[in-house]
Structures are given as C-alpha cells and as structure tokens.
TrEMBL record:
PROSITE patterns per record: BEACH (PS50197), WD_REPEATS_1 (PS00678), WD_REPEATS_2 (PS50082)
Source organism per UniProt: Minutocellus polymorphus
SMART domains for the chain: Beach, WD40
Matching SUPFAM superfamilies: BEACH domain, WD40 repeat-like
BEACH domain segment(s): 1-82
Ranges for the WD repeats: 249-283
InterPro entries noted in UniProt: BEACH_dom, BEACH_dom_sf, BEACH_Domain, WD40/YVTN_repeat-like_dom_sf, WD40_repeat_CS, WD40_repeat_dom_sf, WD40_rpt
Protein name: BEACH domain-containing protein
Taxonomy, superkingdom: Eukaryota
Keywords from the UniProt entry: Repeat, WD repeat
Length: 342
C-alpha cells in the first residue's frame, strides 16, 4: 500500500496508462517502448465469426486464451500527470461559511478560512455539558449531536457513538467513563459508569478514542503509548508503542478509516503507527521549524488526522504543518502566519 501511494507512483502512473490504454499501445510508439504482443490479442484484429476453417479458428482462440486480450485503447494522446496536491492549492473561499461558526466562539480551528484569520480570545471558561454547565475547567473536547453542542472539560475525551466521555490524568494511572448526555438509560450527566485503574505505570497525559468508539489510544507521562479495545464496559490492552525519546506524550489521534495512529511528544517528535498491525510506520520530518518553536523546545502541541483523505496536521512549537498520507510535508504555517506550500 505504501509503495502504491508513494509520490513516485503518482508522478509516473500516467506512463503506465499510456502503455496499457493510451497512445503507446500500438504503432511506432509501442515498438519504441518494446510494448508489442501477439497480433491476435489486439482488439479488432481478428473477426472470429468470419473464419470458416474450424482448425484455424480454434488455433486463434487458443492463442488468445494463452496470451490474453489487450485492453481497449482509450486515448490516442499522452495521459496527463496526476496533480497530487491540487486540493491544497485551492484558493476559492466561501466567507459566508464563517458566520455559522459564531456559536463555537472561541474557535480553535476554522476550516476553509483564508491564509490569515484574526481571533479574539475571551475570558469565558465554561464547558457546557448537555443542559448543564460545568465551571471547573476549560473546554477539552466538543462535538455537535443532533443540533446540540456537547462539550467536556480539560483532560476529557468524548466517545461519540455512546454519548459518554473519558476522564484521565488522575493518580490511578487510568481512565474513567462518564455520561456526557442524558438518555433513557442514563439521566444524570457526568455520572461515573466505570473506572479502569493501572492502564499505565504513570499518569495518563492524553487519551483519544476512535470515531466508532471501539479503540482508545492513551499517552503517558513516561513517553509510552498504549492501544486499547473498548467494548462498552471493559478496555483490553492491544499493544504498547514505544518510540518517543523521553518526556511525556502530549497529543494523539487515531483514524480507523486509514488505519492510522499519530502521536506527538514533548521531545518534538510526531510518529505515525499502523492501527491494524500496531507497528511503527514513520516519523514525520518537519521542515523550516521556526526559531520560536525551537525556543519552546519544539514540543508537539497537537496532531490531527483528516478522516477524508488521511492528511495529518501537526502543531510543533509555533509551527503548523500539513503532511499527506505518505508523510510528505505539503505546507507550513510559520509564526508570521504566511502559508507556505512545498
């Protein structure tokens, strides 16, 4: 999969199409490219219904069955190159979409915004959980459920399908499961449903469930990452991932669509893991990290996987970077807020 999705294949895929379906299938171009086959295998070369000699007809059929049939030629001109990053370079912006984000103030991400957006921070430190406001912490996670904005506090992560949320960071080195929204079964918001102790040898610093709620990825202050399966009642350890060079794991994200886990640490490293095999895939290499990021120790602050195309967004220090599914850096947003395409 990694080979087929690599940049080399993307840049040369049209050459293969020229040989099989294009202008190099027949004629002088085919001879120059050493792309010639048995003549009876080409479309339209032989009319089997017009052959009356059964021996000759059977021999031609045998040749076709042995060598196969050449596909239909679809194009007589060279196929164009594939545009790998055309979606990122799209400049058309609908500014009317920004008005719908007013209810999410203060916003932490504006999707589809131009290269520069001015945000005004507020002093409001309230997280609205269902119909009850909780004043103990700032917003840690939120989502829109049937037109209602549901949020949970810091050190919490929503489990979307079940209307529950994880709370982590306590001295029990584990997580607890709470009610996020009232339902016929659970009428009390924030009620503790289960407690899972000793999931790590030290406190859990970050946790992220998958969109389907079946997976949970936790990051510890001892730089380890653990992957769990959650069946609605119990969590079962699937693997312990080690790769960060000391310091705590600061951010994680998981995508079941692309089978990807992304983790960031205080060491500044952003690592990508395979969710299916639970093995290491690659380390994302950040280009043009600003001096301000270096002053901050280049700690990974946030990572996010796009569930539509597999792109990965990272915030290391004060540098925002976009990577494609193969780990290639596509764009960088420096501290001066100028968006740079690679």
């Amino acid at each position: 999969r990694q080979a087929l999705e690599s940049d080399y294949v993307s840049k040369n895929l049209h050459k293969w199409a020229d040989l099989i379906f294009g202008f190099k299938q027949r004629g002088r171009e085919a001879v120059s490219a050493l792309n010639t086959f048995v003549h009876v295998t080409y479309e339209g070369t032989v009319d089997l219904d017009a052959i009356e000699d059964p021996v000759q007809r059977d021999s031609i059929i045998a040749q076709i069955q042995n060598f196969g049939q050449t596909p239909s030629r679809l194009e007589r001109k060279p196929f164009p190159n594939r545009n790998v990053v055309s979606a990122v370079k799209e400049k058309s912006i609908d500014f009317n979409a920004l008005a719908s984000l007013a209810a999410l103030t203060p916003p932490f991400c504006v999707v589809g915004a131009p290269h520069r957006v001015y945000l005004r921070a507020t002093m409001l430190d309230t997280c609205r959980v269902g119909m009850i406001g909780q004043m103990d912490s700032s917003v840690g996670d939120m989502c829109l459920v049937k037109g209602q904005l549901v949020g949970v506090g810091k050190k919490c992560a929503l489990i979307l399908p079940s209307k529950k949320y994880y709370r982590y960071g306590g001295p029990n080195n584990g997580v607890s499961v709470h009610v996020a929204m009232t339902s016929a079964r659970h009428r009390e918001v924030n009620r503790v449903l289960s407690i899972h102790d000793g999931m790590h040898r030290a406190p859990v610093n970050v946790a992220k469930p998958s969109l389907n709620g079946l997976w949970l990825v936790t990051g510890c202050v001892d730089s380890t990452v653990r992957v769990w399966r959650y069946d609605g009642q119990n969590v079962q350890l699937q693997a312990t991932l080690c790769g960060h060079e000391g310091g705590k794991v600061t951010c994680v994200d998981v995508s079941t669509t692309f089978g990807t886990i992304v983790t960031g640490g205080a060491d500044g490293n952003v690592l990508v893991w395979d969710l299916r095999t639970l093995t290491f895939l690659r380390k994302l290499r950040h280009i043009n990290v600003t001096a301000a990021s270096e002053d901050l120790g280049s700690s990974a602050i946030s990572v996010s996987v796009n569930h539509k195309n597999g792109n990965i967004l990272t915030l290391v220090g004060s540098t925002l970077s976009l990577f494609d599914i193969n780990g290639n850096q596509v764009a960088t947003l420096e501290e001066d807020f100028e968006f740079e395409l690679h």
